[in-house]
Amino acid sequence: MKTRAFLNDFILMAAGAGIMLAITLVVLYLSEEQNPAAQLAFKAKRVELVEQMRLALASASEAEKSAVMATTDQDSQSFADQSRTQVAAVQQGRKELEELLRTGGTKSEQDLLAQFTQTFAEFQRMNKDLLDMAVQNTNIKAYGLAFGPAAEVLNEMDAALSRIVAQNVSSTSPDARQVTRLADDARIRALRIQTLLAPHIAEESDQKMDELEALMTKEDLEVHKDLDGLAALLKPGGSPDMEIASSRHTKFSEIKTQIIKLSRENTNVRSLAISLTEKRKVVVMCQDGLAALEQAIQQEPTVGHKTPALPR
């Protein structure tokens, strides 16, 4: 009886061990079947994040350029907001990818992301500076003043001086010739100042702007002399046009000061120059870094799957 009981216990134990072994083999088999799918899904998720980052980076760069090139404050601000939104999207993707690589990425992928993070930090700094400058539009505002209010008051000054000349053409006064000379000289010198404003607004170099301002100052001093000379010859209250010419010249000088101040800030010129040179290089570096990271992820071996050879 004891022998039979022992045999029964042995058989039950053997059967139990067999069942456990079978369960273990099934679990291992299913694990082998599921791992490749999980690995492929994990790889696809990382690749998708990188591609989204590359697209957002390109969109941020294009919106920044549009903000720099926009001709109104409203358009500049709108494009600047779009650029900032896309930069935030890149940053969010970078954080998500960093977390994924921390739990399942290779050392090479982690290093590539770290390199991109450094370059992207420079991109963020430059993008912020460019957008801050672009929305100010100081050069565009300077052009608006130069070809708007400044041109209008200068035309009024010129017209007043032209009338003074016309009034003295048939005059027998011994000062008539001198009046004509002074009026014409003031008109010519004032127009020279006007022609120097546009180059000043477009100029990038501070030294060149100094030279242009020196020329304008020299011409303006001569205009003052001419107008003072005219006023003395025509006597106070002797010519309403003389009063108009003097007041319009004063107004022109005030507007010119505003134009030069805006031109000196040079936000449009400087932002465009940086966008087309330094910023462009950083964008290329960022995109190259993401491309290298995507390639590294794609080349990861997967159980049961062969990694396709990349084209040379």
Key attributes of the depicted protein:
312 residues, mainly alpha, disordered C terminus, de novo design (two linked rop proteins), 87% helix, 10 helices, 0% strand, 2 domains
Describe this structure in words.
This protein is an all-alpha fold and 312 residues long. The chain folds into two domains: 41-135 and 269-298, de novo design (two linked rop proteins); 139-265, de novo design (two linked rop proteins) (Up-down Bundle), CATH 1.20.1440. The radius of gyration is 39 Å and the shape is rod-shaped. It has helices spanning 2-69, 73-104, 107-134, 138-146, 149-169, 176-202, 206-234, 240-265, 267-276, 278-298.
Oligomeric composition of the shown chains = single chain
Shape: rod-shaped
Q: Which class of the largest domain in CATH terms?
A: Mainly Alpha
* Percent range of helical residues: over 70%
Number of strands: 0
| Number of domain modules | 2
What is the residue-mean pLDDT, rounded to a whole number? 87
Q: Major β-sheet, in short? A: none
Order of helices and strands: HHHHHHHHHH
Tell me the Rg in angstroms: 39 Å
Strand content: under 5%
List the helices and strands and how they pair.
Blueprint: H1 2-69, H2 73-104, H3 107-134, H4 138-146, H5 149-169, H6 176-202, H7 206-234, H8 240-265, H9 267-276, H10 278-298
Helix pairs in contact: 1-2, 1-3, 1-9, 1-10, 2-3, 3-9, 3-10, 4-6, 4-8, 5-6, 5-8, 6-7, 6-8, 7-8
